[in-house]
Amino acid sequence: MPRKPIESKMPTWLAVILAVIMVTTMGGISAYLVHDLRNPKPIAKAGAVRPDEGISASGSQSVEGPKEDNPVLKMPQVAQIISQAALKPADFPAKDGVVYFRSPSANEVCAYSQDITKLANNPWVVVSPVAEGSSYRGPGVVCSQVRGALLPAREDRHPCPAGELRGRSATITNEVANFGACLQGGANPVQADARDEKNVRFKEFAPVANGSYLRLGNDFVCGAVAPDFACASLKSGTAFYLTATGYKLYTSDK
Q1: Could you tell me which of 85, 89, 63, 58 has the C-alpha nearest to residue 220?
Q2: Between β-strands 85-86 and 212-216, what pairing exists: parallel, antiparallel or unpaired?
Q3: Cβ-based neighbour number of residue 90 at 10 Å
Q4: Contacts of 160 (CB under 8 A, 6+ apart)
Q5: Where are the beta strands (DSSP E) in 162-219?
Q6: Which of 19, 60, 108, 154 can pair with 103 through a Cys bridge, CB separation 3.0 to 4.6 Å?
């Protein structure tokens, strides 16, 4: 028995309208997807720290992050640090108001405090001498080195009230950046630890790994920008970059 062809009961004019609508809709969606894939939205905040990645002197989280309209963030010495992956400040808790951390190689051991005068007699870092007639104030970061025989360049040297001027230590505040250490006996605390105890004690300090940075309060960022370990002020751009064989200082007047 022959089969009858299926006949549509839909009027021809309605079928034509529905077909036009479907073709137009599919074409629009395809054009949107192609345009979106070929023209992705630019990343507007690459490297910026998230608002929940601040840290206070007590080690608690802060809700304030670096402002994108802050011109200091565009300074090369700052931009290079914050273009990396942000670490969680909660992984670097404060101890008695001081946050400790170290470089990936452990050649630099660092301390941050909202009151830099608290670091004057710190067992790990040596605050660099400051220009005669000046003094440190406010928050600051100090990094002392284990290896390296660096001395401050002549233009960076400041007098030592006590001890002998040596290298191996860098200090920044929001106002100044200095390099050098006033030492008696020639060794800073981390050098003595490395020699006598083979880094046993300061291994407890968490490292800032290569390609990452740590935000310290609302003032500073420190990061491993290989081959340097660097710290910079978010408020003025003062900074230091350190290796075992060289250093660079960035101050507001340079």
Answers
A1: 89
A2: parallel
A3: 12
A4: 129, 182
A5: 164-173, 177-183, 212-216
A6: 108
Q: Are 225 and 241 in contact (CB under 8 A)?
A: yes
Q: Which own/partner pairs from 198-204 qualify as long-range (CB within 8 Å, at least 24 positions apart)?
A: 199/106, 199/146, 202/102, 202/106, 202/109, 202/124, 203/106
Largest CA distance in the chain: 116
| Whether residue 227 has a cis bond before it, omega within 30° of 0 | yes
Who contacts 97 (Cβ-Cβ below 8 Å, separation ≥6)?
57, 58, 113, 114, 115, 118
Q: Where are the domains of the chain?
A: 10-41, 54-250
For 143-190, what is each residue's pLDDT tens digit? 998 877 789 999 999 999 888 888 889 999 999 999 999 887 655 666
Tokens of 210: 């290569």
pLDDT tens digits for 204-253?
A: 789 999 999 999 999 999 999 999 999 999 999 999 999 989 999 999 76
Pairing of strands 85-86, 220-225: unpaired
Q: Which of 210-248 are b and which e, b meaning 16 or more Cβ less than 10 Å from the residue's Cβ? A: eebbbbbbbbbbbbbbeebbbbbbbbbbbbbbbbbeebb
Taking CB atoms within 8 Å and a gap of at least 24, the contacts of 91-98 are 91/206, 92/55, 92/59, 92/206, 92/214, 93/59, 94/55, 94/56, 94/57, 94/58, 94/59, 97/57, 97/58, 98/122
Rounded to the nearest 5°, which phi and psi values hold at 33? -65, -45
